[in-house]
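Extended Data, record Aminopeptidase
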Amino acid sequence: MQLLETLCRLAAPSGHEGPMTAFVLDYVRQNQAQWQHQPQVLAGDGFQDCVVLVFGQPRTAVFAHLDSIGFMVRYGRQLVAIGGPETQAGYRLVGHDAEGEIDCALTINEQTETLGYEFSRELPRGTELTFRCDFRETDTTVQSCYLDNRLGVWTALRLCETLEHGIIAFSCGEEHGGGTVPFLAQYIYDNYGVRQALICDITWVTGGVHLGQGCVISLRDSLIPRRTYVDRIRAIAAQAGIAVQLEVEDIGGSDAKELQRAAQPWDWCFVGAPEDNVHTPDELVDKRDIASMLALYQVLLREL
């Protein structure tokens, strides 16, 4: 869990994924010699802040977004949201500017519902703030801000340890209305002929999805994947004996929305652990679901 804690402590709100990109590239450089197979690393010019790792002769691409929700200083002491964070007066927000480190409190105007901050000085407009990380681990759970989607990134990096054939695509901008998946999808399709994808992200605990009962295979959210592809994934999970839950929702979305609308014939399915307290400083995930998620990705990348 040390790697997961490190990821959760890195600030990378949508539009400013650079710190996460740098960490992922450094992690790959330091660890790939111990992996069973070596990837081609695609990053830099032409990829913005994305990172693509290509292993062997890929058949499937895994998409995991690097960005998180957060806040940006507007004018005066006002804030605007980046993505859809839950807001509660008193939440601790952190960041930095030219004058140093920032640790302030979120405020909410009761009359106008305007977001703001309480701090000893006024912050420059455009300053980014994120939830202060309080990483808590027990024998059975992990609780922190930004498990969405640092846990998806963690799973993808751990998957690299054994992956022989496949593509890991670390995308940007997912939390704020879509981002870099369109050009990544076209690049991957044009250069490798890959047209089936798994969305390595985190979903919600609901009335039908619970902590500790396994990784979630989503039959639908606001979008509906092709049933033939989803049934293949379910069959592989069943044959492997991996505990999974099935999700049926009519709201929510992910990087999949860009694949659904792509000109190429992409198949996709959302596969990820459920979490409680979504988009708060106190996101909660069960370790059994983390283990199920990693095990399922390992078998899916072998079998699909």
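Summary. Helices lie at 2-9, 18-31, 147-159, 181-192, 227-240, 256-260, 287-303.
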